[in-house]
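Why show two proteins at once? Because comparison is the fastest way to build intuition. When a single record is shown, students tend to memorize it. When two are placed side by side, the eye starts asking what differs. So, the first record is below.
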Amino acid sequence: MKSVRPKIGISIIIIIIIMSALAMQAHAQFIFTTNSGAITITRYTGPGGDVTIPSTTNGLPVTTIGNSAFWQQFSVLNVTIPDTVTSIGYNAFNHCIALTNVTLSRNLRAIPDDAFSYCSALRGIEIPDSVTPIGSSAFESCIAQNAPGIKLLKSPTNWTEATAVSAAQNAVNAYGSQLKAIYAQWSSPDTGIIPLLKSKNYGKVGEANHVILISDDGVPFEMCDVGNGSVAASQSQPANLYAQYALTYAVDAAKGVKHAAGDPGGGAPKLENVTYQGDTNLADPIVAPFVTKSATTLTLASPVDGLPGTFTTTAVSDQTLWGNVYGQAHGGVCAS
């Protein structure tokens, strides 16, 4: 009688090999680094769908999902994050536009800015008690689009022009006619976003198919763009006053001059103690005018941070704006 034991043994070996290969394939979907005996996932490279992040790799715990690890993974549908993970990086799941459900680690400490921004399909997320700070734009469009009763504050994203224009392109492609406004945290992306909107047949300010574009800086070409309707508004950072009073206070410090809250300010009416993220310093809180084509009174339904609910914008024709002053000295705002 022939023995069948060798065949059983071979089958067991084959099963073990197949299961090991599957485990290796699963871990091969992630690029990671090792630091102090722990794993940081730096990039997901898998096919999408349902993704379960492993709790260990190479015998080491997975503790961190790095910055932009899942950025623009359009085919990822559901993500499960193990309890070994304590940290999620900036932009970690940004622009995962098909992401529907996320199960967070019960030991996660914080959710940073833009971690889940532009996850427009995200239905909701249960945040564990271990999470204390949540970035102001962590779920920027995700919950805003699906739960409009929640009001979110925005914050800057990536200080690279190409990245900002690419983000605008992604928003246009993902949301189409649902896209109502774009805020660029600084002026440089305008030069790419304006022609992008034009190529998609979006009109200027006042036209029915207009996408509101608000920028920041107040440089001469922004004054030109506000004036011709390409940009709806600009927060005009008074760069001349920043430079002037930075030097003034530096000289005062060198001379031993001491200032205190309540003293007359340079750009602001008076000096104030300003607190940001627990750090308090004496400051000259110079106001940046909000510039529109014509002076407009705006009323906020829910004022924040103790600011007034009504304010009036500054007309772009105001020749005291630093962008206009500099532009006129260099051939005009549209030539600068």
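Second record. Ask yourself what differs from the first in the token line.
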Amino acid sequence: MPNNEVMAIIVDNNNLKWVGTYNGLATFDGINWTIKNPYNYSLPNNYINSIAIDLEGYKWFATGSENTVLKFDGENWIVFKMPHDILGSADPISFAVDKKNIIWVGTYRKGAFKIDGTRVIDLRFPQASGIGSISVDNFNNKWFPLMDFINTTILFLLRITKKIPVCLQILLAA
């Protein structure tokens, strides 16, 4: 293992386990571990804190740093940069894949983005919003816990209308 701090694990269709750590990525085939990092595997970023597999089997990695999401097609790394500004970091920390194969990305302090294949689209969440996880239900609705970093977490149902998030239902405010 590249590091003892495991941040993410996912199993692909070939039963290969993908493990993200603060110091690289590892795969486990049931017998052997393979370490993947910038030095031996052209991994663009060493910090992996979330992993998703899309409907086509491509692996997606939230790096949690440098505002970067990585897509691995089996041979090549494709780098997606999340837009950011001086008011907030767009470091990705969570993923979800919806029924249309759109990748939803939660960030540390800049809300959420979606990747529709080649474009990164800012969903215009409140400025200091963190999205620690994302879930997609059977109706393809997206659920986001919105963290405002003032000791408040709000779980809400989001529907996108003209690229603007609309809160349909607040379930919990604490």
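One difference worth noting in the second protein: Residues 152 and 174 are 6 Å apart (CA to CA).
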